[in-house]
Design goal:
about 475 residues; alpha/beta; Nucleotidyltransferase, domain 5; 2 domains; 7-stranded mixed β-sheet; about 20% strand
């Protein structure tokens, strides 16, 4: 019997990765990768959507198996704003880590009645990352572009529409827009009507369920080497895709160590966090995915290592230094204008101790976020290992700090492209009728390294927390640069 093959796409901030996967056993039979160009200085971060489409073409061609694919789906970077006119994209997409809309986020919070109202009615409290704030920024700063907009899409939506001809999204990615509610499962008219947004819901994509295909490949997909008429999944956001790729059961804690960091767990119940620390997202399985994100993770630590002239693993075993590596501003805690802070330096401090402090400062924010998720969700399983994924997960120092700060066993799956694998599981589920998370469990995607638990280093965590609280006013100060 011939193989049944599906394609899973990860359209991330920096690159597109494509996996061609055997439906029956999860074997990756071919893969491809293409880099993206990200432009912008200061707080701006942008990529033209056509870059993603061309990267998808390149990666499918690189697999050499595109013509054999029987279903395809896309998991994409969350929150980006794609504005379409009559002839396609009107401008480059504002990406999730574009922080220019921080003032608009604060205005939106006030306009609806405060953080508590947002959390209860929508599920998230606006920050600069979310799509609604970027649309508000565009209306204020580029009103002609906003007036010419005929459709608004998220990054994964754009690719799904090019593949299927259907303006569609899924509940997971939609929940990161700040105008779709986990309470009602629908767009929130009260939010769309806010003066800063004034958005007609006809400009937004249809929201599909976990097992609902967006359609079939059409004319645009022919240039990708795909056969006409193959099924296209609804797709999802990248974090939701990774959760699918892991086949997560509710309560299993996950930390993703990439350029940014995320902490999340699947929850049976909807999450409401008025502080905004935890975004009460939906997931791609019909449940919920409470998630906290940091802007500074592996990239910040690697930058510190480079400044010190050290290899990233050349960190001390112990340090009295505390570093808050908020080099790009920060989202958790929500300090978009923050800069990095170092405390506790002495004449005897070594570069290796400073590097360890950078690891500890980045990890402490993520572990604290898991604690908030535990309190607001259906709860974390106290016996479950902490699952480490992302580019930093294989790093020895990241693993050690995760053990010390979590007190849990630490699981590091051998599979690296979990976002693309989650998209592939969704595509396979569209074919077989299974739940996508069940497909991933059948594929045994969490197999890999398992590290024993160690005692929680409560003293260091408390020291980091004290410095964070003491420097909160300094980090919130917006006067680091002139103008």
């Amino acid at each position: 019997m011939s193989q049944r093959l599906v394609a899973g796409i990860d359209c991330s901030t920096q690159s597109t990765k494509t996996l061609v996967v055997d439906v029956d056993d999860g074997t990756v039979v071919a893969s491809g990768k293409a880099e993206h160009e990200v432009t912008g200085t200061g707080g701006a971060r942008e990529t033209h959507p056509e870059v993603w489409w061309q990267a998808l073409r390149e990666t499918l061609a690189a697999t050499g198996r595109a013509g054999e694919v029987t279903a395809i789906s896309v998991a994409g970077q969350q929150h980006g704003l794609v504005v379409l006119g009559d002839e396609g994209p009107l401008r480059p997409s504002m990406l999730w880590n574009d922080i220019r809309s921080a003032p608009e986020a604060l205005e939106l919070i006030d306009a609806l009645g405060g953080s508590k109202v947002w959390a209860e009615r929508v599920g998230v409290v606006p920050v600069a990352s979310f799509t609604a704030t970027k649309w508000a920024w565009l209306r204020r700063h580029e009103p002609e572009t906003a007036a010419a907009t005929r459709a608004i899409r998220l990054p994964h939506d754009y690719l799904i529409e090019r593949l299927s001809g259907h303006g569609a999204t899924d509940r997971g990615d939609a929940s990161g827009s700040a105008w779709w509610s986990t309470a009602t499962g629908d767009y929130v008219d009260e939010v769309l009507a806010l003066d800063a947004l004034r958005l007609d819901r006809s400009l937004l994509p249809d929201v599909l369920g976990p097992g609902e295909p967006a359609g079939e490949t059409g004319a645009d997909a022919a240039e990708l080497g795909l056969a006409p008429g193959i099924l296209v999944g609804p797709g999802t956001g990248d974090n939701m895709g990774a959760a699918l790729g892991l086949g997560l059961e509710p309560g299993v804690p996950v930390i993703s160590l990439g350029t940014s960091g995320t902490a999340y767990a699947v929850s049976e119940s909807r999450v409401v966090d008025p502080s905004g620390t935890v975004a009460g997202f939906a997931d791609a399985s019909g449940r919920f995915l409470p998630l906290a994100a940091t802007l500074n993770c592996t990239l910040a630590v690697d930058r510190v290592a480079a400044w010190l002239g050290l290899d990233r693993n050349d960190a001390a075993d112990h340090t009295d230094v505390v570093m808050l590596p908020f080099l790009d501003g920060e989202r958790t805690p929500n300090l978009p204008e923050a800069a990095g802070t170092i405390a506790g330096l002495r004449h005897t401090t070594t570069p290796q101790e400073i590097l360890l402090a950078a690891y500890e400062g980045a990890a402490a924010s993520l572990l604290a976020a898991l604690g908030v998720i535990d309190r607001h969700s259906s709860g974390l399983d106290p016996t479950a290992p902490l699952v480490l994924i992302g580019g930093g997960a294989k790093g020895m120092m990241w693993q050690r700090v995760a053990q010390r700060f979590s007190g849990r066993a630490v699981s590091v799956p051998a599979t690296e492209e979990l976002v693309a694998l989650g998209a592939a599981a969704q595509a396979a589920a569209i074919l077989t009728g299974e739940a996508p998370e069940a497909v991933a469990r059948r594929w045994q995607t969490r197999a890999g390294l398992l590290l024993d638990p160690t005692e929680v280093d409560a003293f260091v965590l408390e020291r980091i927390d004290r410095v964070r609280r003491l420097t909160a006013h300094l980090n919130a100060w917006s006067g680091w640069t002139e103008g």
